[in-house]
Amino acid sequence: MTDTSGLGDDVQLLTLDVNGTAHEVITAPRRTLVDVLRHDLRLTGTHVGCEHGICGACTVLVDGLPVRACLMFAAQAEGARITTVESLADTGSDSPCDSRPGELGDLQRAFTENHGLQCGFCTPGFLMLAEGFLAERPEATKEEIREVVAANLCRCTGYQTIVEAIDACATARRAQRAACSEETPCN
């Protein structure tokens, strides 16, 4: 359970589905999702940047769609599927086309291989923005990717390497889907 000291009398019990696990949290109704994720659930991969929804460092997926966690109350997320950056490295399953648990996910590897990160502060937000976008638009062009990443702020990379990383991941995923659909072993 959560320590409720300092929250006052106005608290509520929430059950949040985060990365496929149900978490019970006692919190004030006006606490943001990013604060509950970081402070109550200790999922610190979601970063707090501007706290005004401008920078995108706090981007998570809510029911598969990118959301600024600093603009959403935790109570609004109850009943939804919340996905944080921590889930990207733990994507293993029984399918031969998925990565193994604990390894970097394909999008994370693409960011590393294409130098899509420097200081790393904005990276979790970009990863989650890209994950949600590619799930919706797996055939995205570089121009579409460039337009989407403009929604988040990065002070280090100049965005080109981020675009290249997302495009490389999208290309690899399309090739893997084609290979898996032909029932050839994928690794």
SS field, number of helical segments? 5
Mean pLDDT over the full residue set: 89
Structural class: alpha+beta
Uncertain segments: 92-97
Distance between the termini: 40 Å
Please give the number of β-strands: 5
β-strand percent reads: 5-15%
Range of helix content = 25-40%
The coarse overall form would be globular
Biggest sheet layout: 5 strands, mixed
Spatially, the strands of the biggest sheet line up as: 2-1-5-3-4
Order of SSEs: EEHEEEHHHH
Structural Rg: 17 Å
Describe the secondary structure blueprint for this structure:
Blueprint: E1 12-18, E2 21-27, H1 33-40, E3 59-62, E4 65-68, E5 81-83, H2 106-113, H3 123-136, H4 142-149, H5 160-181
Parallel strand pairs: 1-5
Antiparallel strand pairs: 1-2, 3-4, 3-5
Helix pairs in contact: 2-5, 4-5
